[in-house]
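Shift notes (night). Ran Signal recognition particle receptor FtsY while the centrifuge was going.
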Amino acid sequence: LRQGLDKTRRNIVNQLKAIVGQGPLNQAAVLEIEALLLQADVGVEATDYVINALQERIKQEALPPEVAIAYLKEILRDMLDQPLKVHKATFAPEKDTLNIWLMTGVNGAGKTTTIGKIAHIAQKSGYKCLIAAADTFRAAAVEQVKIWGSRSGVDVIANPGQNTDPAAVVFDAITAAQSRNIELLLVDTAGRLQNKKNLMDELSKIRRIVDKKAPNAKIESLLVLDATLGQNGLRQAEVFAQAAQLSGVVLTKLDGTAKGGVALAVVRQLNLPIRFIGAGEGIEDLRPFSSYEFVEALLS
Ligand code: GDP
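Came back to this:
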C-alpha cells in the first residue's frame, strides 16, 4: 500500500513536514496545510473538516511538530471511519449465505479488473464464488470477465450475444448461485454514463430482480471509482449514488496518481465507506481498506 500511495505521499509528506517543522503549529501553518490538502484533491468539504479540527485544537494548545502530525492523522482516520457509524464496520461475505455484490462504475474505472481480483481473493479464502457478466452492452467486457474468472477458477454466467437483457443475466446467475450454494455472487453491471436515465433504469431493474429473487441474500452495492480522476471522479460518484443504493466504494488506480487524497473527499461527500483499494493491475493488487493503514501510508 505504501508503494501504491507513493505518488500521493511524495506530493504531501515532505511539504507537510516542512510546514509543521517550522515550530508549534500556528494559524499560518494551518493555512499552508489547507493548500496542501486541496492540491492532493482532498476536496473542499473534507479539507474544511480537517482545517476546522486543527484550528480548534491550536486554540487550546501549541502543537509541537510530532504532535501536530499525530493529531492530523487522527482527524483523517476519524473522517474515513465516519461512515462506519451507519455501515457495518467489518466487510467480508458471510459464510454459508448468499452474498450478492453489485459492482457499478463507469467504463474504464477498473470494474472488471476489480471483480477478477475480488473473485480471486474470495476463492482463495474458501468462499464459493460466481460471477454474473451483466455488462451485456460491451461484448469485450463479457470476454474480459471470463478471462479473469478462468484465472481464479470462478465460473461466469453470461448470455450469448450482445444487447441481451442484463436483468435476465442476473436472474440466471441468481438461479445458478442458489442451486450451487454459492456464497459470493459478483455482478458486473453496465457503466455507460452518457445516458443517465438508462443507467438508472438498468441499475434499478437489476436491484429489483435481486431483491425479489434473493430476498435473504446479503446485498452490497459497490461503486468502482478511478482515483486518477480526482474531483471529476467525485462528480461521477454522485450520479451513481443517485442511481444505485450504494453501500461502499472501491478506489482503483491509486498507484497511478498523486491525488490519492480523493479518498477523503469521497468518504466525506458521499458518507460511504471505502471497502477496497486497487493499487496495480495484477490479480494480487487489491487490498481491503483500513483507515489506519491508509493514513499511515499517506503521511509516514
Ligand atoms: P472497466 O471498464 O471498469 O471494467 O475497467 P477495466 O477493469 O477493464 O480496467 C481498465 C484499465 O485500468 C485496465 O487497463 C486495467 O488494467 C487498469 N486498472 C484497473 N485497476 C487498476 C489499478 O488499481 N491500478 C492500475 N494501475 N491500473 C488498473
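The chain has a mean pLDDT of 90. The radius of gyration is 20 Å.
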